[in-house]
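Quick one: co-fold with adenosine-5'-diphosphate.
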Amino acid sequence: MTTGLPRQEPAGRGRSTDPVLEVRDLDVRYGRGRRRRRALHGVSLEVAPGETVGIIGETGSGKSTLARTVLGLVRASAGSVVVAGEEVGAYGPRQWRALRRRGVIQYVFQDPLRSLDPDLTVGTSLAEPLLVQGVTRDEATRRVRVFLDRVRLSADLLDRLPGELSGGQRQRVAVARALVTEPRVVILDEPVSALDSANRVQVLEILKELRAAGVALVLISHDLGSVAGVADRIAVLYRGELVETGAARDVIGRPRHPYTRLLVSSAPTLRSGPADRAEREALRAALSHP
Ligand code: ADP
Ligand code: MG
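Sure, here it is.
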């Protein structure tokens, strides 16, 4: 990243060319006994250093479950998760705390109120992950200002509480907080879904800058259109399974799976040629009778 800060060895055990995130044959089930439901089935995904991967799927397809499993908040029933060369699948709470403290992998949830402590000022919230790492208070203050600037927020906000900010400002604080430790990969779960269109454009611009700066991003969205301009690769999740993964331009230009075709033809900004309602109806029918 181009923070002007001294960059140490890449955090984590992997070499700098190894994937920053590897998910293999992930299965996640919720509930017990007869109420047991499978939320993810056989999901495999790799994210290379600096790569932006969009994960697209409708509500309930398992996107947040995937994010939460990768972050150790949900336990997989099968499969493995490797973060920066470390197999984290069997990690307990203490090991996860240690991994989080190192700041190798960070996250932004859909609702910024969940990513931010409502009782901490912006300044404290942003400095905290650095102070936990043993960075001096002066250095933390300096870096907080650098990252606040990167998400285009004024230093005037440092003393405010999350509740005193607009939705767009809160989301940008959450992004800055995820960045201060200079993680190798950031998972963003619907980062622009709750934002109005002006803020959406601005946050997507910030994400593009991060991508250019070499941070790997996993960009989760139910909206293919909003991710299309940022992602290098797109993975399509349908009913808990990845049905299609490829370069963004191929997935959008030549979608193979009927569900991806439906997504592409339903995204107003992506549709080429006249909207073909009949085709969409046919795809929907094909999907409901597999
Ligand atoms: P998405 O983020 O794509 O909307 P989720 O990962 O939130 O999808 O949900 C996937 C499926 O798992 C849905 O059927 C949802 O109802 C179910 N689910 C999610 N979280 C839980 C939970 N904590 N307990 C039981 N079922 C859950
Ligand atoms: Mg979700």
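If it helps, Strands lie at 21-30, 37-47, 52-56, 78-83, 86-87, 105-108, 185-189, 216-221, 233-238, 241-247.
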